[in-house]
Amino acid sequence: MHKFLIRSFVSSLVLLFTLTVAAVAKDVKAAFVYIGPTGDHGWTYQHDVGRKAVEAAGFKTTYVEGVPESADAERVLRQLANSGHDVIFTTSFGYMNPTNKVAKEFPNVKFEHATGYKREHPNVSTYAARFYEGRTILGTIAGTMTKSNIIGYVASFPIPEVIRGINSFTLAAQKVNPNIKTKIVWAFTWYDPGKEAEAAKALIDQGADVIAQHTDSTAIVQMAEKAGVYAFGQASDMDKFAPKAVLTSVENNWGPYYVDRVKAVANGTWSQKDTWHGIGDGMVVISDLDSQMPADLRSKVKKLQADLASGKVHSFTGPIYDQKGNLMVAEGKTADDGMLAGMMTYVKGVEGDIPK
Amino acid sequence: MIIDINFIGLIIASIMASAVPLILASCGELITERSGVLNLGVEGMMIIGAISGFALMTVTGSLIIAVFGAMLAGVLISTIFAFLTQTLITNHVATGLALTIFGIGISAMIGKNFVGIPGKEFPVLFEGLKDTIPLLGPILFGHSIVFYFAFALPFITSYFLKKTKIGLIVRAVGDSPESASNQGINVKLVRYACILYGGAMSGLAGAYLSMIYTPQWIENMTGGRGWIALALVVFSTWNPIKILIGAMIFGGLTIIQFHMQAIGVRIPVQFLTALPYIVTIIVLVVISRDSRKIRLSTPSSLGKSFHKDN
Description:
The structure holds 2 protein chains of 2 kinds. Chain A is of the alpha/beta class. Chain A has 2 domains: 16-129 and 254-277, Response regulator (Rossmann fold), CATH 3.40.50; 131-251 and 316-341, Response regulator (Rossmann fold, 3-Layer(aba) Sandwich). Chain A has 11 helices and 14 strands. Chain A has helices at residues 2-27, 43-56, 71-82, 96-105, 131-145, 160-176, 193-205, 219-227, 255-267, 295-310, 337-341, and strands spanning 29-33, 60-64, 87-90, 110-114, 124-129, 150-155, 181-186, 210-213, 230-235, 246-252, 274-277, 284-286, 320-321, 327-329. In chain A, helix 2 crosses helix 9, helix 3 (71-82) runs parallel beside helix 4 (96-105) and helix 5 runs parallel beside helix 6 (160-176). By secondary structure, chain B is mainly alpha-helical. Chain B has one domain (5-297): ABC transporter involved in vitamin B12 uptake, BtuC, CATH 1.10.3470. In chain B, 72% of the residues lie in helices and 0% in strands. The mean pLDDT of chain B is 91.
């Protein structure tokens, strides 16, 4: 009888505790602000996958899509903060100033800004992913798989994020194949399937047999499939769009971070942070490697992936020279985060100039 | 760089492929405008065509149903415009803009379930003949049926407007609906028909994008091509052959600027990106500067509502 009483007492305590946690958890409301439509199958789509993970963890979420990076963003943020949201994720670089401005007015609401660097108030955190680590892997594959030694690269806008990607990709490709050339075409859009396809076609017509992209739609991998060349998926696994062309994809995996942060808000343990996670923390995920790649390349890539994750290998390890031959990173050194965050010069081996 | 003759053929073929949606939508809008109706909803009708074509292809698996379904969707959404502007006599500009906003919104809503689904391969004609003739081979052969239709359309449209009785009726309605009405022509019926035809062509242009050019559905995938098609109609001074020229220049410069970038030509990229817009307008203005001809081909009552009072 005693045992029974104790057992029921303990179990009711556990039950009560779970219920309390559940009740607290249910009370936390998270909001997401998106730059594009959730149907872009790229950048915003992946953030929304992350939001769904938060929802699956038992929290209420709201999202607003297609919010311009202007005064509109401020209005949307203020409205979300006013309507009882406890944490707001702003998922585009251009929301940086609006986020900080509105954060000042709502000290009790937590703000999480993606890809920015301003944390002017204690209730603002920033987070980003080290996509360049993924591009080191793509560069290694591209340099090995190319036969024409011409690699095409469709870029979006000349910002450090994109330049860093081009450099990391080219450095890795050169390491396995010193004869390669990276041809860059700037599409000046994140998202215009027609234009992206045209840019890819131009590169393919000029002899590129591997195409990399830093724009969001699947048009490029489809064009590669049609032309019989290789390509890589961007932001999400694009293999089913071009099964023959896509060798692998670099996926953005925000879910674990979002769940973590919302839970922290629920538990009251949230504090200001600057997060820059890569392959090691699972924010950057490499999709399955295509069986068209030779077995030794696949095992090499697997090892590289593990080394990048453990920190044994860094994407920017010296000696690295810029286009003019000036030393950027000395031998044996690696580029620090400050340099990476502001990278606006091409490394040696990239053709052309960065548009100003 | 060695300029290979087949390389030039390939570039011209890509230019033509990129011009197809512009030609289709512009030629459709041209007929609408020639009847005196200004429909600014081209972008909206195009995106409705794009999602309808893609959705029908995915659901039914039939490309024929999908293509005609996309045209029908264009017709249906333009019926709304026709009803508002012709029967309820609303303002053309405001209604057209609303149509675009409506089209983008509703396509996104329908499209939610079709994101991330790969498209089907669309059959091409005369694929085997591609390598038989140098230069011309890739230009002439190995394209979809919609491609060939698009390049015939400006000539058909021109013939229709100039040589057929119905074409003359359309022009009469666009120039002076009062006189046409006095002649016993049912102005509203003609305008309804022209609006619906414009809708069908915009729908087809959208289907070309989502089913043939970049076979997939993503929101806003028309990327402003409807607006460019509208501009082409005006700058070509309502001449279908000049639409063809304009669409080729626009598509051509878009593609050539990518090639120039890839070759490494040292021209600021922003300038190259702006080039298609600037040059297309300049060329069309220059080739259409005969003011007498402009007056002849401009529908005099464009955008004005017609209300038969008796």
